[in-house]
Amino acid sequence: MYYPYLRGKQFELILLRENAGLLAKSSMHPIIEPVRDNFSSLERTIDALNQKDVDFALIINPQAGNVQVEESKILSDLIDEKYSDRDNLYLGYIMHPDSDISALASIMEKYHNHKFSIIHYGFNDSKELSDLTNDADNISHNIFIDGYAGKLYQKIVKKSEAKNILIRDGFKQKKKNALYPEKEHFSDLHLTYEDEGMNGFGDFLIVGDVYSETGGPAYAVAIHLTYIDRNSYNDMFIRHFLSDKNDSRTDTGGKFLEALAKLVEEVHRENGFIYPSKACEEFSSLLQKKHFPGLGYVKKLSMQHHLELMSNYIEEKYELLS
Predict the structure, then answer these.
(1) For residues 51, 207, 300 and 203, what is the CA-based torsion angle, rounded to 10 degrees?
(2) CATH code of the domain made up of 5-167
(3) Which of 17, 131, 207, 231 is the most buried (most CB within 10 A)?
(4) How far apart are CA 189 and CA 197, in angstroms?
(5) pTM for the complete prediction?
(6) In the chain, count of helices (H) and strands (E)?
(7) How many angstroms separate the CA atoms of 214 and 9, rounded?
(8) How would you write 129-151 as a 3-class SS string?
């Protein structure tokens, strides 16, 4: 049902390793786009997912990253040498505006015993792609990135035998943290994906689709938490907890504690909407200790909260259906 899309940065991979059991329990199907050609951390993550038998897609022709990881290296080092027999691993292939249909045809023929997830990310020739995939029996998923695959395109390339998934970026990234509003809409796709003719849905968590390697001290610190508003028909929103100080790049730890205090107050507010996740418990513990673990770790906790929120939503939905 839920297909989170993650780039293979350090904390994203740690997040998947630490939450492999949660992913398995809720039948979540992560999509991983490698951005590092050192595969040691990625392999540990794949091993953790395999141990829990989590279905996941590994993109073999990544497009993100300052230096794109070579398709041949992923295939030789990971698929051929280590994970060729894994039934829970799907080969993800991005079809972007400059994709060559013959390259996809060649790789699908060479790896005909593997299941493929096609990520539709701006490719334009829907008829040519449909002609190819209609003759293929190893297409398991059509994963459409909202905004890069129109309704007509989707209609032409959809396959009744494949699961059709729509991924929408709910995170509206701002140039400066100080520009985030207190709250804003995140996504209703968890409620409407079936109306879109899809078998599942996904997002880029609280990171967003825009990939960046940059980081470092910011004028303001922002912590992002998604939540489901029970008074708005279970629509999903996101809260942005901002530091008060935003006039310099100094004292990142102090700014984090300012934002964290607001987050913890909201989490414990009576009749509030923030799901009491384990990530929120850790946020509360950090405030009690007055400890700043680094912005990367903070982002990981926000992503973990989102996974826990989605897991709880999926459990509640299945309970209502049963």
Answers:
(1) -40
(2) 3.20.20.80
(3) 207
(4) 12
(5) 0.95
(6) 11, 11
(7) 12
(8) HHHHHHCCCCEEEEEEECCCCCH
CA separation for the pair 70, 186 (Å, rounded): 33
**CB within 8 Å of 133: residues ≥ 6 apart:** 118, 139, 157, 159
Phi, psi of 17 (to 5 degrees): -60, -45
Rounded to whole angstroms, the Cα distance separating 177 from 179 reads: 5
Torsion of CA 236, 312, 30, 129, to 10 degrees: -60
Instruction: List the domain boundaries for the chain.
Output: 5-167, 222-321
Q: Is 236 helix (H, G, I), strand (E, B) or coil?
A: strand
- Residue carrying the six token digits 């990939």: 211
Instruction: Using the CB atoms, write b or e for 50-72: b if 16+ within 10 Å.
Output: beeebbbbbbbbbbbbeeebeee
| Helix runs in the chain, H state only | 10-18, 20-25, 40-51, 71-74, 101-110, 126-134, 151-157, 189-192, 252-267, 278-289, 295-321
Task: Name the nearest CA neighbour of 35 among 16, 58, 18.
Answer: 58
Instruction: Please state, in angstroms and rounded to a whole number, the distance separating the CA atoms of residues 32 and 28.
Output: 13
Residue type, 126: S
Residues 2, 27: Cα–Cα separation, whole Å? 8
In sign, the C-alpha dihedral spanning 144, 116, 9, 239 is positive
Q: Per residue in 79-134, pLDDT tens?
A: 999 999 999 999 999 999 999 999 999 999 999 999 999 999 999 999 999 999 88
**Tokens, residue 176:** 């400066």
Q: Which amino acid is at 94?
A: I
**Rounded CA gap, 250 and 218, in Å?**
8
For the chain, how long is the longest CA-to-CA vector?
A: 59
75: its two tokens:
């295939």
How far apart are the C-alpha atoms of 118 and 57, rounded to whole Å? 10
Q: What is the pLDDT of residues 151-199, one digit of tens each?
A: 999 999 998 889 999 999 999 999 999 999 999 999 999 999 999 999 9
142, amino acid identity: N
For residue 70, give both structure tokens.
């070579």
